[in-house]
Design brief:
Length: 221
């Protein structure tokens, strides 16, 4: 399962409750989409200053639209991707044209993972959700080998202050500080993650002030 698919599955139980912090989740989803397209060779990130090829701070997006996405649910955002060719990552983060949520949820519904109607989907394949949670829990606790894709997903979740909300069932005794320490123990160093952190730095307080904070503190069943 792709990182963007895992993230959408993790957030599916809260979709009707995250309206207060939707901007954070949109920004996270668009970051994961960009990195998924990089994984398939559709996108490359290059230095904005050609004389400093080593500096990938807020890099430019280079699009090769001959490389199609692996997931059917990404076809719609793929068609919009060329509009971001040669633009900086910061211009794409949080942009609704790169938000895959509708296409991915429709595909999950087709696969029988979700049921319901757009805007009111519910997780029916709870075993699929639990597998993702358990697998990321093992990674957080250092109980399995953690690869680059694992690090990226965990860092994206942490960047929007959602570690306890989405993964608290794995370590209900951990504080946000402890989640952060474990997430950043072996950083991915990905430039899109770094830009995501900068882009959301002024928004993460939204999570703490919203009703999602109360959900984050609920003990695991």
């Amino acid at each position: 399962m792709l990182n963007i698919e895992k993230f959408l599955l993790l957030t599916a139980p809260y979709r009707s409750q995250i309206t207060e912090v939707e901007s954070l989740f949109v920004t996270a989803r668009t970051a994961l989409v960009l990195m998924e397209f990089e994984r398939t060779g559709t996108v490359q990130f290059v230095a904005a200053d050609a004389t400093k090829a080593w500096d990938l701070t807020n890099p430019l997006i280079r699009v090769d639209d001959s490389q199609t996405p692996d997931a059917v649910g990404l076809n719609n955002v793929f068609s919009n991707l060329v509009k971001f060719h040669n633009k900086r990552v910061s211009s794409a983060l949080g942009h609704k044209k790169l938000d895959p949520v509708k296409g991915m949820e429709k595909e999950f519904a087709r696969q029988g993972i979700l049921t319901g109607a757009p805007g009111d989907y519910r997780v029916v394949a709870s075993d699929a959700l639990e597998r993702v949670q358990d697998d990321l829990g093992l990674a957080l606790r250092g109980q399995r080998v953690v690869n680059q894709q694992d690090r990226i997903l965990l860092e994206v979740i942490e960047a929007i202050n959602a570690s306890r909300l989405l993964l608290g069932s794995q370590r209900p005794d951990w504080s946000m500080t402890e989640f952060s320490r474990h997430v950043h123990e072996y950083p991915s160093g990905h430039p899109v993650v770094e830009q995501l952190v900068k882009s959301t730095s002024t928004m993460t307080g939204l999570m703490e002030k919203s009703k999602m904070a109360a959900l984050s503190q609920r003990p695991a069943a």
